[in-house]
Amino acid sequence: PDVRAAERRLAAASANVGVATAALYPALRLSGNVGFSADAIDTLLRPAAATSSLLAGLTAPVFDGGRLRRALEIRDAQQEQALIAYERSVAQALADVETALSALARNGERLQTLTAAAASAGEAATLARQRYAAGLIDYTTLQDTLRAALSTDDTRASASGERLAATVQLYKALGGGTPPVAAREPDAP
Predict the structure, then answer these.
(1) Residue 28's beta-bridge partner residues?
(2) Contact residues for 89 (Cβ-Cβ < 8 A; gap 6+)
(3) How far apart are the C-alpha atoms of 156 and 142, rounded to whole Å?
(4) From CA 104, how far away is CA 112, in angstroms rounded?
(5) Which residues are 35's β-sheet partners?
(6) For the whole model, what pTM was predicted?
(7) Are the C-beta atoms of 36 and 47 separated by less than 8 Å?
(8) How confident is the model at residue 50, as a pLDDT?
(9) How is residue 57 annotated by DSSP?
């Protein structure tokens, strides 16, 4: 959404440059008027009572003291600022996507490793229960093994949550879940 907003500001600044450029050239203005004229009410709606006029005028900026050229220079500078802001916004968006992709990949690898470790710890806990039942180990060793298995599983669950958070961050960085910027009038100068 921030890239879209920056793009719209750039488009508005470009349009303002076009308006300032157009102000440098002569303008043709047309105006007209249609009416009815009659001496009596019964003759008012007859074709002969219709009157019209059409006026044309050509205006050109002659003595503006460089005001229009300065306005164009200002609009050009504003367009350049909008372009720089747009490029910065695109660069930041790309960096956000890259960061989110990297975090997603790291968390995915970590989750795979912890899933394998949790499976191994679960097997160790099963073996420890069997050995305790057979009288080969004491209760403290069994509890330590079970505690390690639970800790590994807890860490795996946390890693799964972090991976989901990284997925959401990537989705946000790609602009998901935000409504498009509504078309609106450009900001007034």
Answers:
(1) 58
(2) 2, 3, 5, 6
(3) 21
(4) 12
(5) 51
(6) 0.60
(7) no
(8) 67
(9) E
